[in-house]
Specification:
With about 525 residues, the protein is of the alpha/beta class. The chain has helices spanning about 20-35, 80-95, 100-115, 120-130, 135-155, 195-205, 220-230, 245-255, 270-280, 305-315, 335-350, 370-385, 435-445, 460-470, and strands at about 10, 15, 40, 45, 50, 60, 70-75, 160-165, 170-180, 180-185, 210-215, 240, 260-265, 285-290, 295-300, 325-330, 385-390, 410, 425-435, 450, 450-455, 475, 495, 515-525. A seven-stranded mixed sheet has the order 17-18-19-16-15-21-22, sandwiched between helices. It has a five-stranded parallel sheet with strand order 12-11-10-13-14, sandwiched between helices.
Length: about 525
């Protein structure tokens, strides 16, 4: 009889060192449990106490079947925001003074709980977001690795306390990084566990207290993360969980006078609004990741099968709803037609359907608004450009209750704004170039600069790509995903230009220090 435990199975976005039959058995059991819990009502949690709202509950509907209500969540008001932030502010001194080794120990326990609960977490995300099984399991695994990785940054830096040099023999100089205080963490729907866990655990291990708001489409996943922190022993008031409409509580969260910092992943428009307005009395930390319009470049020396596979996976994994998704491709004219044929062939073979099923790769988009946006963009593509594949809603018994659209490939002239606008949909725009120089020039025209992929067998072209591309995350000859798949400690996830605000990203070695500020300490001992 197998003694394999859930935490023994490890699945990332690009590799699986696991007994997959066992993984599917664990997932099936977790899915049954999660389905049995659907439809319950959930409060806010402030100071580790349940808090109800007099506002109408918010239904958390599955994008797979919009009639399936996964849960009914309290809708926070600005008064609840004030309560949550004041709770966090009341605890920031005690949490800051908690030895960093104790904070690390608590958060490492949270990472372990995440691994133990990964199949339940993945089942929730599959139902709530429309992630495939493997995508959801990767999200859960990444969450645990992120927490551990940020703990390790504290350990390696010995709490970010550094002995400095002396100017005179009678002085000692120490440099210390200290937490800001209260961080508001506002997370997106697409990686509802990993991005939430990453931003919140970095803030916590650095000594900040947190008010955490998940995306309106993914409150259940957010609640599961809060429960992990609570069960790991994070003290009351140090993490506070609120759900609600961004239009109601978004501004009150970051405009509150006791908010010391923001970490936000979401749209460029919302992020820039925060950035412009947040620092009125003095400059406050505003850590933003704001999406991308990520290019892949395919040169005439490329392995076209590798390139087609990598582009397909990055364009249509999670239905194109990744900040790092490949949404445009520039192909050298010498190989354009054979590459397009291979790409279309692979995209046609995608298995679409209920993403909780074992062999499904492609699920629904997140909500009705996204599906209607797809309709509008696809209609324009059919009118103005050449649609190589897709361009319509998916129809049939497996699709009719949810928000299912077809993987879509559009061939357009380089002047098209389809190459510049972030749609956040499973729509890939492809174009033809006659040189690497043109491909780089076109790639860099976008206001975003998150990820970029490159396919070539020539080292001089690879070096030219790295020198010229304006992206914080780059991949060369990556079959498992042209522009996607960053992992904690392996690839930092840094947005350049309109994709980020600090030049240092999550998953990388400088992330935790951004949640802290520097204090120099000099002591003079005379006589």
């Amino acid at each position: 009889m197998s003694t394999l435990a859930p935490e023994d199975i490890r699945i990332t976005y690009t590799s699986q060192s696991a007994d997959m039959d066992a993984a599917h058995r664990f997932f099936d059991a977790a899915l049954a449990k999660v389905r049995s819990e659907a439809g319950r009502e959930y409060p806010l949690y402030i100071d580790h106490k349940p808090v109800k709202s007099s506002e109408a509950l918010l239904d958390d509907a599955s994008p797979i079947d919009s009639s399936l209500i996964l849960g009914r969540f309290a809708a926070a008001t600005p008064a609840h925001v004030d309560q949550a932030i004041r709770s966090a502010a009341a605890q920031k001194g005690a949490w800051r003074r908690t030895p960093w080794t104790e904070r690390v120990a608590l958060l490492r326990k949270a990472a372990q709980l995440t691994r133990q609960r990964k199949f339940e977490l993945a089942a929730v995300m599959s139902l709530e977001v429309g992630k495939s099984r493997l995508e959801a399991l990767g999200d859960a695994e990444e969450s645990a690795d992120l927490i551990d990785y940020y703990c390790e940054q504290m350990v390696k830096a010995e709490g970010f306390v550094t002995t400095m040099s002396k100017i005179t023999p009678i002085e000692t100089n120490v440099d210390v990084l200290r937490p800001y205080g209260v961080f508001v963490c506002i997370a997106p729907f697409n990686f509802p566990l990993a991005l939430s866990a990453g931003m919140s655990s970095a803030a916590l291990v650095a000594g900040n207290t947190v008010v955490y708001k998940p995306a309106q489409d993914t409150p259940w996943t957010g609640l599961k993360l809060y429960e992990i922190y609570r069960d790991a022993g994070i003290p009351a008031g140090v993490v506070n969980f609120i759900t609600g409409k961004g239009s109601v509580i978004g501004d009150p969260l970051w405009q509150h006078p006791l908010t010391d910092g923001i970490v936000f992943t979401g749209s460029k428009e919302v992020g820039l609004h925060m950035y412009a307005q947040f620092s009125k009395k003095w400059v406050k930390p505003c850590l933003l990741e704001l999406g991308g319009k990520n290019p892949a470049i395919v040169m005439d020396s490329a392995d076209l099968d590798m390139a087609a596979e990598g582009v397909m996976r990055s364009a249509f994994g999670l239905q194109g709803q990744k900040c790092s998704a490949c949404s445009r491709v520039y192909v050298h004219k010498a190989v354009a037609e054979p590459f397009f044929a291979k790409l279309v062939e692979r995209a046609k073979a995608i298995k679409a359907g209920d993403p909780t099923e074992r062999d499904v790769f492609f699920g629904p988009v997140i909500n009705e608004r996204a599906a209607k946006k797809f309709d509008a963009v696809a209609a324009r593509a059919k009118k103005e450009y050449e649609v190589l594949l897709g361009g319509e809603r998916l129809k049939g018994p497996a699709f009719d209750k949810g928000w299912f659209v077809a993987p879509t490939i559009v061939k357009a002239p380089l002047s098209s704004d389809f190459f510049m606008e972030e749609f956040f949909l499973p729509l890939l725009t492809v174009g033809v170039v006659d040189s690497l120089e043109v491909a780089l020039e076109e790639s860099n025209k976008a206001e975003f600069g998150l990820t970029g992929g490159f396919y070539s067998k020539k080292q001089e072209e690879i070096e030219a790509f790295w020198d010229g591309i304006e992206s914080g995350v780059t991949y060369v000859n990556k079959r498992s995903g042209a522009t996607t798949g960053a992992w904690p400690g392996a690839q930092s996830f840094t947005g350049w230009k309109g994709s980020g605000s600090t030049g240092k990203g999550g998953c990388g070695p400088y992330y935790v220090s951004q949640f802290m500020r520097e204090q120099s300490r000099t002591v003079i001992k005379e006589g």
